Amino acid sequence: MLKKILISSISSILLSTSAHAAITSGQLIAIGSLNGSSAGVNADLSGLTNTLENGVAANFLGGLGSGVAYAGGNTFIAVPDRGPNATVYNSAVDDTSSYISRFHTISMDLVANTSGSGYAYNLTPTLTSTTLLSSATALNYGTGAGLGNKIDGITPIGSGAPALNTTNNTYYFTGRSDNYGSANPITGVTDSTSANPSNGRYDPEGVRVSNDGLSVFVSDEYGPYVNQFNRITGERIKSFALPANLAIANQSPVGNTEIANNPSGRVTNKGMEGLAITPDGSTLVGIMQAPLAQDVKASGNTRIVTIDIATGITHEYAYHLTTGSGVSEIVAINNHEFLVDERDGNGLGAGNTASVKSLFKIDLAGATDVTNFSTTGSAADKTALTNAAVTKTLFLDMVSTLNANGITSANIPSKIEGVAFGPDITDNGALFHTLYVGNDNDFVPGTSGTNQFYVFAVGSNALNYQAQQFSAVPVPAAAWLFLTGLMGFLGLNRKRKAA
């Protein structure tokens, strides 16, 4: 029994219905919202009870759609980004706070709608757990010296190290922009670049689950970084070394200062925005939100990075933006084809109307490796990189699809960011894949809307889709202790009976 609980082979959930008209590929079939948990409205399950420097609760539930990953069955993982920084309180740290990085485990119940009105399915997301991200080795944090005061205008902002470090004798990643330094306990050498894996600042944007189900991979914008974390404890297992051309040499807690002082590397707040994992579980595929500084913004060329999980070997490929201002996600169709979420920054939360929220299909098979491509920013270099970009075709125009379902462009979230394939469904005798899309509401539901999840149907013949297979399901620590105690009790009881 215990073995079945701990290690199970999860297959796709097949839902069947004939209570509504037959659905078609690309159709929006459900929308669900997640605005709280058993801990309360706008509260996650981290158990944190303190208040951040900006006055926001440390357990505030928001930004869930920054990254979304499927974990088998009806379980998904979602990551919020660096935390609530919409409250103006200290420009010296870009209004960021010591919000501890985390991921949420969510149960997505998709059930056929038999009411005769509304979408074909009803989606009910439920938050089941919140896991904080930490390191067993020391991290670099800002001291707060010379950075002014908290929101009250009197109390010094103080260290960027969260108080929970002392309580739990560990080191937590946070969103505060001054949490960096030159110490590197991992390698033992000085590293003052943004690639230093011992920096405590972390801005999660992409997430995927390992095939064994026991760990999660998270990409971020500050490094950029790609880290592997234990899915049960949240402790970092490994940090992958990314190509040096992605990092910046001169760090600053103020984004505009960073941009001005770095002629090469990722642009501040436009790092590794998306992350995919191939169905065979061997390769991570990250994508930068915008062109690197050396590739020049006007070129419209951003970069894709593949990481061999076993060896750490990386390759780079170019992706050319069509009409969007940046890329927010990448998800695997199979081991070489991917969907890329290209979007503008317009819509709900930005005070205007959305125009571009598109999914493009790309193929890395035979694509040109641009790892060693260096650019001077010249017209010739920009053209050469564009010519080397992967081929792409439009797969889904989400703006027009949402418009067709009565959602105006002004009410389409500006930050459509998380994308993941979910369990298959059988509808009116036809097989469909499901595609879950989430929004990042920047922790301000009053202006950017709720944490929404949109589900689209994808015809079984529309893509050469290969589902990721999961071989194990982690049991939360509390449940493990309970089960261990139960087994111990049963064993003791058997011994007594034998005696």
Describe this structure in words.
A hairpin with a 2-residue loop joins strand 2 and strand 3 (40-41). The protein has one domain. The strands form seven sheets. Strands 1, 22, 23, 24 and 25 form a five-stranded antiparallel beta sheet that branches. It has a four-stranded antiparallel beta sheet with strand order 4-5-6-7, with no helix packed on it. It contains seven helices and 25 strands. It has 499 residues and is mainly beta.
Structural classification: mainly beta
Mean pLDDT: 91
Number of separate helices: 7
Percent helix: 10-25%
| Uncertain parts | 1-17, 477-499
Query: Total number of β-strand segments?
Result: 25
Q: What is the 3D form?
A: globular
Q: The biggest beta sheet, please?
A: 5 strands, antiparallel
Total separate domains = 1
Q: Give Rg in angstroms.
A: 23 Å
Measured distance between first and last alpha carbons:
25 Å
**Share in β-strands:** 25-35%
